[in-house]
Structure to design on (590 residues):
DNA sequence: GTTCCGCATGAATCGATAG
DNA sequence: ACTATCGATTCATGCGGAA
């Protein structure tokens, strides 16, 4: 029986109050970065960022289960030639709230934004900050093991010289690969560097971050029927991935256009699932298995 | 004619005073992390780390040229299940000293230490913090260009009409491109993620970083005959690389065993130079005299 | 069914110019 | 002097239609 996401339209500072304490297993979110996405969101300034975020993180601390995890995707921008310090300040302040700053994963982007400047290179990484309420938390490491051995050797053989120079570490990546290829291969635990590309389709809009990112953290920190929360839902990537992975999901979005789009998406999904159950179309289930490698 | 490194035995808090102000083009160093290498700097505790480092960074600020760069390789350790915050606190304090925190490069380690812990994965990255005295500094970006990706071979083979003119992004993001400008392009600028392997030669050195790391920064931030400083020389990797790249180099090391080893290494190099020096130019000997006068 | 190939898309930043 | 706007610059990827 498919789970249905719980969606809220509104400012998460308000909407979060409707969520019971100690009820969420995993929060994965990518809030609007300072002075970014001005066209869609109001645009939180660099100076006021920490002050703006702290009431939200306070609520997130309340709703998270003691064994749960909060993954925050963020990156500071450059201001007058310097990296801003608001992310560091945010970490320090969140610790005062009671959060533990457990780990910092790195999202190493294979395709980062282009551009050239006289005194800096393109920014190819973002922070994935892990916060917890307690030193003990649920982590299902086996769920994200990646293959190694012959598989990696064969793959490396086919890479160009360029690729060998720039990217021949397969240990930290390999997400989203077809699981059937891994059968019979040895697997190892990944590292704290996640090396994947941003999604850039040539359609109307692309996702905030690639599906593999929430997928990886959902695998790592939750099991089926656990609950995943994204207080900055956007186009609903995290919620959609969680839903397909049989997790309960809660999404909050302040922009009606995004909210309605996600709502439509799940309404139509519900429809197709009904017909799927009736005709049990082979093609659809293969498609789902291939794309998300779940279940 | 080969340059000779200038070596100091002692605590860099003292030894740095012997170096003239505004004389260094690049500082690349990997200081002992908190609670590591206890025998050398007496085991700097996590709590006292910032306090210990600030007098050193103060001196480094003094000796660096206005156009120079300071690259600090550091990573916070885990204390009681949490990442320590001393690196963030250090950045904030160094900014108060007058340093600009220009950029944070990531060293993505291809082969990181093996191991497994119940609630964290292997640590596959370290920070390479870039600090400067001014917004304008020397950066020789062309010296570190890397081969272009394979996509270019096919992509640039036959250009479409839109490729031949400037093609602005449809969404008003401000991006645009003129692909025809790329014809014949074989190299591109790198990103701020440096993806190289740790060296695993079985020498009994503790935690020297791979030669490619200082080499990359020396290429990027200095030219020949510029001066490179490593106040925590260790086994002398940075100094040796700088020397071979025809940069002047200054190394400070507190441990006699390390110091003597590096000195021996360059003494033997000197031997082979003596025979060459009989036909040496005026300029070179003047240079050597000046260097030794500093000691 | 595959593979090939064209194309649109970026959580950007700097410096010059205008108000 | 100080702020706001605008043009220039850049590269790897996934998608979809064609071969």
């Amino acid at each position: 029986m498919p789970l249905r996401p719980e969606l809220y339209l509104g400012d998460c500072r308000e909407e979060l109050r409707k969520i019971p304490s100690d009820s969420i297993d995993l929060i994965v979110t990518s809030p609007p970065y300072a002075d970014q996405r001005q066209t869609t969101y109001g645009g939180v300034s660099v100076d006021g960022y920490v002050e703006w975020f702290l009431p939200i993180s306070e609520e997130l601390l309340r709703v998270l289960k003691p064994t749960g995890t909060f993954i925050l995707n963020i990156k500071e921008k450059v201001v007058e030639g310097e990296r801003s310090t608001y992310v560091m300040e945010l970490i320090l302040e969140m610790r005062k709230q009671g959060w533990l700053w457990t780990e910092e994963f790195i999202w190493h982007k294979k395709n980062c934004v282009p551009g050239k400047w006289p005194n800096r290179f393109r920014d190819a990484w973002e922070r994935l900050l892990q916060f917890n309420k307690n030193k003990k938390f649920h982590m299902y490491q086996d769920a994200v093991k990646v293959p190694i051995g012959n598989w990696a050797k064969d793959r490396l053989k086919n890479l160009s010289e360029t690729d060998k120079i720039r990217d021949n570490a397969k240990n930290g990546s390999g997400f989203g690969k077809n699981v059937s290829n891994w059968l019979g291969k040895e697997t190892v635990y990944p590292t704290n560097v996640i090396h994947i590309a941003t999604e850039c389709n040539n359609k109307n809009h692309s996702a905030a971050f690639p599906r593999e990112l929430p997928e990886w953290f959902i695998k790592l920190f939750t099991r089926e029927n656990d609950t995943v929360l994204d207080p900055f839902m956007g186009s609903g990537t995290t919620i959609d991935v969680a839903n397909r992975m049989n997790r309960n999901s809660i999404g909050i979005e302040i922009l009606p256009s995004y909210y309605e789009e996600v709502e439509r998406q799940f309404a139509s999904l519900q429809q197709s699932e009904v017909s799927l159950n009736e005709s049990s179309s082979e093609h659809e289930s293969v498609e789902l298995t291939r794309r998300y490698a779940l279940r």
Summary: Chain B touches chain A through 47 residues (CB under 8 Å).
